[in-house]
Amino acid sequence: MCHARRVTSESALPSESNADCDVAALATVVATQRAELDRLRNAAATAAVLERAKGATMALTGCSADAAHEELVRRAEDSGRTLVEQCWITLGGLALPDPLTTERDEPTEPGSTPAVPTPRGEGPSDRHDARVLARIAQALVHVRDPRELARCLREHLAGRVRADAILIFTSGPAGGLELIGHAGVTETLATQWRHVPPLSGVAALDTIRTRQPCWLTDFERDSERYVLIGTPPDRWLTRAWLPVVTGDAVAALGILRTTGDPFPSATRELLMEVARLCAGRLRSLLPSPVQVADRTAEVVQSVFEALPGSAILLTPLRSDTGRIEDYRIDAAAPYAVDVAGRRGRALVGLRILECYPTVVGESLWEGYRHTLTTGEPYEGEPFEYQDVVAGVPETTTYSVRAAKLGDALVVTWVRHDRADRQEQRTADVQRLGNLGWADWNLVTGKANWSPQAFAVLARDARHGPLSLGELPARVVPEDRPVLSRAIEGLLDGGPPVDTPFRLGTPAGTRHLRLVAEAVNDADGRPLEVHGFLQDLTAQRSAELALVESERAVVTQHGALLAERTLADRLQHALLPLPRRAQQLAGLRVDVAYLPAQAGIHVGGDWFSAIELPDGSALFVVGDVAGHGIDAVATMAQLRFTAKGMVITGSSLTGALTRLNALLLHTHDTNATATMVLARYEPERRRLVWAQAGHPPPLLLRDGGARYLQRPKGMLLGAKAAPSYDEAEFHLEPGDRLLFYTDGLFERPSEGFDKGLDRLAEAALGLGTEDPGALSPLLHAMLEGERRDDVCVVAVHLPPEPA
Hints:
Helix content: 25-40%
Oligomer: single chain
């Protein structure tokens, strides 16, 4: 957003060291004088309107000035209006054109209020403004919210001052703005400007802070100084922001116009009168602090209704000196009770000293004050409080906690009577453990259950508890014999039982548990059976779900293992690894292949190293994208087809072209692959090779390492008609040539070129004693996790005998 620009010339600064202080003091004085002048202007304008209304009333009724003032005050009180609003209504009803004047464009309508003489100094425009203000004042009486207020103002000001849009802002949280009413703007724009942070360069915010009107009549200049509302902002070329003082608060009334004409002085005076008219009505529409407190109390009360304990909301009542004399109860939980036995909502509105008269002087009274002052929660030690119940003193122990909520306190307390504590703990245990106790008197035949026992057995408490003999008949048929034997054992004086069983209910099957023991007499005969019934449905459901999950994991693991084994066997069948180095066309050939470690990643890397019928040698290294059965199948197809094509006389580039067509027309998975083909002729030590998107071979010669220059070639399966070229290279005695797949050097954390540089550096470290040993190279390149398959073919031309 744009901010207001301030440019200060250094040459204009005073040379004295205290110049800044003088300027600041002068600015403060000027601001104070402006505020006082504005106040005087408002007072003078209000007094002028009052005098005009008094004069009109005196002219009509012939009463005195004091009687006219009293009549205006009486009318305002009877109608619920402010005195200013009543004055404008009176003037609007009377200020019709004078029939004796020369202006005949607005004849008096039959039945209208008789004309009165025009006050001295009041011209036709004044009468028009009075009529507009009167109509606005009459309409404002029926306005129900700020949104209607904005619509009402736009309706009455559109023709008079060409107001195209109306916005009403009030001060928001942290000094920002809140849009409370609007008319003539879209809902999208209103939503965008509903909450404005406290930024500089916002005209409405400046109006609220200074309580001064802001007239924006030069769009180019204003757009540099202020953040202008609108999409685009030049929709409204002129704007006015007027302060609406509603007591201690200030609102900003925005008048937005599409016209670029300035605001004449008469229009400015009219709009300032409109702002003063809106003050009284806006004051009644905005929530007062008391109303906000009432809404807070309503919200807290709704929360309290769901609380199982005792809690109240206290608002401090202070004396003229600010000392807390008492607290008012504004919300109370249903379990909150005072010394007179009043509970819950019956306490709302009462004073704390009415309900608990002896708390004054106790430590918690000071704790309340400390919490209101500092905001720190108060949690006191258990203390004794003396209640008077039915005229008899009774001492009770309580623990009280208080927390600040706005300007009020939320107070909760717990009663520590032994019987109450034990009863509450028992109820909590039954609720949390989802169990209920049960007693069966075998002598009287009566049974006694806790309410939770009825809930566990899904039985209506109105039907009473079941006897021990009736209990097995209610469970599922498969569990009746087990439960019957357990109960018979108890009735025979046997040991305690812990028996699970299932119960069918309309909501489904419940998994329950009976834990009980018998109380025997001196002869060993059972007199009573007591114990508890527990609902284990949730636990049992979790156990069953866990078992099913474990079974699914085992099944999935077996399937994955079978797929891994199948793919591994298939690859070993299709790609057998030689146990030792091979001798092909005078070259030593060593091969290394390592599958990926994590999961089932048997992939599509492969090699071929064979001697052709004419005595030359063929070397092939390829890599199919992906892993698993599909990759292995594609690998087999390409490996055998490539060898077959070259053996039957196809050129290397011709073989790559046909393999590309094979992938495009016979595979449904859009597979791609890279490949390098090399043919070595021992007579001339000539190596002819071609590639399809594959990394170049690495040459180790005379203690150095370099990559062969790749001929043109695109990876297989990427394009319908690719072009492939061949390259020629001559080996010298002692040369080593490495063909490999990208799993040897690629890492997610480094680039392609960096990986190749690392491979060349590692290859230089290979010893010459065993030129075909690849273990040191693999160890150096594959430290840590391996994400892809690795295939390496090392070709070595032995040095000539000395």
